[in-house]
Each structure stands twice: as structure tokens, then as C-alpha cells.
Amino acid sequence: MESIKTVRQLLEVRRGPVWTTSPDASVSDAVQLMTTKDVGALMVLDGERVAGIMTERDVARKVVAAGRLEGLRVSDLMTERVLYVRPDQPLAECMALMSERQVRHLPVLEHGQLVGIISIRDVVADIVAEQSFLIEQLEQYIYELPPHQRT
Q: What gap in Å lies between CA 47 and CA 33, rounded to an integer?
């Protein structure tokens, strides 16, 4: 198993749709989409342009602060200043950015176009898979050694 080093490689392995909504959509509809698709974030698009991101955290914090859900639009809750990454960026850099900025999702833009989204879960899963593979390789190497060389 080869480790995934860049965002592009991760997106190739983890093919799936990027779920989106519009700024004018109701928060209720957006939350229902997040629940149905089992995702923690929706990209908010105004036409083809990325207008923001709406995450579970945005919903939890801002709906409680507003004291209501009725009548709220995605534009009322979304984060407009979106951190994003490029497909050629190393995953280690993405992990550092997520940790430093305390975000769980990073949209992937190439030439200004949304091409994917990665989550901290995706990045951690790759790290775990890479470490598991390395452990297996080391165990195999050790067991192939003659008994007197295993210590």
C-alpha cells in the first residue's frame, strides 16, 4: 500500500460528490441534506462561486445564539471566509492547517473551481492506514529473520 501524500491523491481514492447548497436555502433544508448524506459540512455555492461553507459547528453555535431555526437562511449561518487547499498540497500541511485553525473540513479549489472537500477524518484515516502498513511490513521483516537475529 502506497501512502497518500497529496490532496489530489486522497481525492482520487475517496471519490464522492461534494454536497452543496445555496446561500438562500433554508437552514432546515440544509441540515436535512447533511443528515441524509451523513456529512458534516456543505459547500455554499452562489452559481459556480464558492460563497462559504456551512458546518455542523456553525449550526450548533449559531442556531442556539439566534434562539430559533425558523426563517434562518444558510447565508445567516455559513462561514464566508473559507480556508481552502489546492490539489497539489501535501496532506501533512492540510493536517497542520486544520489543527492550527481548528477546522474539520477544507474545500479543494483548482483554478478557482471547487473540485472536492477533505475532512480531518479523511486525513487521519490515511495516516492510520499508512502506519498500519508500515507496522505490517516491519513485522514481516522481523519474522523472516532467522531466530537468532530477531532480538
A: 19
Cell of 28: 432546515
pLDDT digits (tens, 9 = 90+) for 35-72: 999 999 999 999 989 999 999 999 988 887 777 778 89
CA–CA separation, 63 and 59 (whole Å): 5
Domains: count for the chain: 1
Instruction: Count CA atoms within 13 Å of residue 138 on its CB side.
Output: 6
Residue 96 burial (C-beta neighbours within 10 Å; 0-12, 13-18, 19+): exposed
Q: Write down the pTM of the prediction.
A: 0.79
Residue 136 phi, psi (nearest 5): -60, -45
Short-list 83, 38, 31, CA closest to 60: 31
Distance, in Å, from the CA atom of 118 to the CA atom of 124, rounded to the nearest integer, reads 11
Give a yes or no: residue 62 inside a domain.
Answer: yes
pLDDT of residue 4: 59
Q: Cα 137 from chain centroid?
A: 29
- Determine contact, residues 11/93, Cβ cutoff 8 Å: no
In the three-class reduction of DSSP (H, G, I as helix; E, B as strand; rest coil), residue 16 is classed as coil
* Residue 108 belongs to a domain: yes
Is residue 38 domain-resident?
yes
Kindly report the CATH number assigned to the domain that includes residue 21. Answer: 3.10.580.10
